[in-house]
Amino acid sequence: MIKISEKIPIMINGLPGNVARTMAAAGIADERFLVMPYSLTGQDIPETTAMVGENEFLLCKPDTRDKKIKAIFAQYPFFIAVDYTHPSAVNGNAKFYSRNNIPFVMGTTGGNREELEKTVQDASSPAVIAPNMAKQIVGLQAMMAYAAQTFPGLFTGYSLEVKESHQQGKADTSGTAKAMVGYFNELGTDFKKEEIQQIRDPKIQENQWGIPREHLSGHGWHTYTLKAADGSSLFEFKHNINGRDIYVSGTFDAVVYLREKVSLKGNKRRLFTMIDVMNQS
To answer: Can 222 be counted among the known catalytic residues?
Structure first.
């Protein structure tokens, strides 16, 4: 069992992807963590290693990771995984972590979320799962959840339009947008998650949305527009994020939170959210 005073070994999974690269660089610079030189990656990734600054990472693919994890455990008997891989890998990775009793932070969106939660609940090790790791956005979602519970039906009769823009390589619809739709529906709208408008064209993003060119490769802009049926009133909610740095703090808070849960005797709960993390921070 790791001691509270020790650095926390973390395995940043998803290299050579951009978000995982951001997390790895931040983790290396953070005195709280020992970033392990390994990273789970996709079967289709041609590289066998990835560099983050002067640090080399060995990439572990799905067809070899079950063998490699034995050698990794020999070096690091305890560690926490940070997952920023791909939506198609979410459920398989979660099963891998749970099968090997690896606590993990799932920052990757997509996959079958009900199956993901069941995997964690049936496991012996805990996990933090959230559609967004940015603490400010998590706070906004908490406010929306409070409004939905306190004022159900407040926007009955209003139409809802949801637009989200992310970098061209994002494969799935924003998990944050999906969560927000749930809150708006509790507030009275009638909106299907399939109606969320995904913007992935860089030309539209730059010319119509005004997203800075330097952030076309990494951003998350969301707009939620509510209109009264007679056109007499309009409400609009926005949260626009440029770059990926905002996700680092929340992710690492979740890592520290999990380490404390693992160290706490008698803790039987397995599934945690960023709301849990922020309530304790």
So the answer is: no
Instruction: Return d(Cα 168, Cα 184) in angstroms, integer.
Output: 27
17 and 98: one domain? yes
Residue 149 predicted with pLDDT over 60: yes
Q: Which domain, by its residues, includes 186?
A: 135-242
Residue 120 has a pLDDT of 97
pTM value is 0.89
By 3-state DSSP, what share of the chain in percent is helix, strand and coil, each rounded to 5?
Answer: 40, 20, 40
* 67 and 21 in a common domain: yes
CA of 52: how far to CAs of 83, 143, 215, in Å? 16, 37, 20
- Residue 38's CATH number: 3.40.50.720
pLDDT for 280 equals 84
Residues 110 and 207 in one domain: no
Query: Is the confidence at residue 4, as pLDDT, over 70?
Result: no
Single-letter code of the amino acid located at 180? M
Model confidence pLDDT, tens digit, residues 206-261: 999 999 999 999 999 999 999 999 999 999 999 999 999 999 999 999 999 999 99
32 and 160 in a single domain? The answer is no
Marked catalytic residue, from 61, 68, 163, 166: 166
- Name the catalytic one among 170, 178, 219, 222: 170
User: Which residues have C-beta within 8 Å of that of residue 276, sequence separation ≥ 6?
Assistant: 128, 257
β-partners of residue 241 are 220
First to last CA, the chain: 22
56 in the same domain as 35: yes
Concerning whether 166 is annotated as a catalytic residue, the answer is yes
Residue 257 lies in a domain: yes
Residues 26 and 89 in one domain: yes
